[in-house]
Amino acid sequence: MPRIELLVVQPTPFCNIDCRYCYLPDRNSKAIVAPETLFNLFSQIFASGWIGDCLSVVWHAGEPMVLPIDFYRDAFQMIDQMKPAQLAVAHSLQTNGTLIDEAWCAFFGDEQVNVGVSIDGPKHLHDRNRLTRAGRGTFDRTIAGIRLLRRHEVPFHVISVLSTASMDAPREMFDFYVEEGIERVCFNVEESEGDHVSESFGEIGVEAAYYRFLSEFWRLSAAAPGKITFIREIEHAIQQVIRPADAPFHNQLVEPFAITSMDWAGNISTFSPELLGLKNRAYEDFLLGNVSRDALVDLPQRRNFTGMLADIQAGVEMCRERCAYFSVCGGGEPVNKLAENGSFISAETTYCRLTKMQATDLVLDALDRVRPAGLNRESAETGVCG
Ligand code: SF4
Fold it and tell me: Residue 45, SS3?
C-alpha cells in the first residue's frame, strides 16, 4: 500500500515574477484551486489509508502568496476539521518572498507555517536570474520580506539556486547570509527540467566548482559557530553516510505516492513534483487522474501509472547495478533522468553527479581527515556504497 509522506498542492500556477531558470509552464495563468477541489483531495487522502501519523503539505508550484491570507485560513480550517484526530498536518509555503508583509508574518506565526524563501545570494547574484516580467531584479523586495520575517521572529530557511558565479563566491555568499541573519540554507543547482536547459550544467568544471563551493562554505560555517546552523546538503549527506550498515535507504522520489502532487485543477501526479506540469513525447503528460472525477485509491491500477512506475524502477535498477553511490541515493530523481537522458530508464545525470556524488565525497573526505589511525576508508564505507 502506498504511504503519502509529502503532499504538494498548487493553489495557483501563477507567479508574480519571472525567473530566468523557471520551468513552470503555466506561470502566467491566474487560475485558483476551488474549495471543492481541496475538499475532494483531502477527503480522499484521509480516507485512503495511505497516511501515517504526520502529513507534510507544501503549498507551491506557482507563487502561493499571490492568494489572500484568507484563502489559507479557510483551507487550513477545513483540513483541520476533516483530518483524523491523531494525524498531525504540517503546512509549508515555498515563496519568492516579495509579498511578505506584517499580516503574513502574523499568519505564519499563528498557524506555525514552515516558510522557505528563495533568494540566490547578494543582490548582484540574485538579480541575474530572479526578475520581474519587466526584467527588473527582485532582490530588494525579497530581502525586505526576509527582514520582516526576522523582525517578527518567524522561523524560516532559504533556498538559493547556485550559478557558476555564486559557486565561485562561497565567502561572499557566507558573509551575505550572516549579515542578514539567515541561519538555515539549502542549495539547489540550476537544473535542466522540462523545456529549461541548465546553463551551469554545460560549464566545464562545474562539478569541481560545486565541490569547492560546498567545502569552503562548510569550513566557513564551522569556523563561526552559531551563524549558519543548517546546511541542507551537508546535513543530508552526513545522515546518509553515517548510518548503520543495515539501515535501509528510502528515496521518496521513486516510491509511488510517497510524494503526491495536485495541480490547481485537481490533477494528481507522483514521483518528482516537477512532473506535475510537464509534457513529454513518450508519456504525453504525467497526470494520473483528477480528484474530482477519480478515486485516488484506483490510480495505482491506471496504465499510465504502471508504465511510468516500470520505467522508473528500471532506472533505479540501472543505478543499483552501476553506481557506487546507490546506497546514499536510492536511484536519484526521475525528472532529471528524463530531462538530461531522455528517459526514466537511465542512471547518471549531471544533477546527481553534483548533488549526490560531490556532497557525499565531501563528507567522506572530511571523515578521512578525522578518522582514527587503523580505520581505512573501505571499512568506513561498508554501510555507504552498495
Ligand atoms: S548518484 Fe546518480 S547514478 Fe548514482 S544512484 Fe543516484 S541517480 Fe543513480
Answer: helix
DSSP state of 93: E
Nearest atom (ligand 1) to Cα of 326: 5
CB 267 within 8 A of CB 277: no
Can you tell me whether residue 129 is helix, strand or coil? Answer: coil
What grid cell was written down for 246?
543495515
- Which atom of ligand 1 approaches the CA of 348 most closely? 3
Separation of alpha carbons 48 and 250, rounded Å? 22
Separation of first and last alpha carbons in the chain = 26
Distance of CA 34 to the CA centre of its chain: 25
Helix pair angle (359-370, 232-241), 10° resolution: 60
**Could you tell which of 312, 319, 335, 341 is best to mutate to test the pocket of ligand 1, judged by most ligand atoms within 8 Å of the CB?**
319
Q: pLDDT value at position 378?
A: 47
**Of all atoms in ligand 1, which is nearest to the CA of residue 357?**
1
Q: Residue written as cell 508519456? A: 283
Closest atom of ligand 1 relative to the 333 alpha carbon: 7
Cα–Cα distance measured from residue 103 to residue 291, given in angstroms and rounded to the nearest whole number: 32
Per residue in 242-278, pLDDT tens?
Answer: 888 788 788 999 999 999 999 999 999 999 999 988 8
pLDDT band at 200 (very low <50, low <70, confident <90, very high): low
**φ, ψ for residue 59, nearest 5 deg:** -95, 115
Whose CA is closest to 146, among 116, 188, 112? Answer: 116
Nearest protein Cα to ligand 1, atom 7: 332
Q: Residue 194's pLDDT band (boundaries 50, 70, 90)? A: low
Helix (H) or strand (E) segment spanning residue 370 = helix 359-370
What's the CA gap between 189 and 164, in Å, rounded? 9
- Establish how many alpha carbons lie within 13 A of residue 327's alpha carbon, considering only the half-sphere containing its beta carbon: 17
| Residue 108 CB less than 6 A away from ligand 1 | no
Q: Is 331 in the pocket of ligand 1 (CB under 6 A)?
A: yes
pTM: 0.91
Beta bridge partners of 116: 94, 157
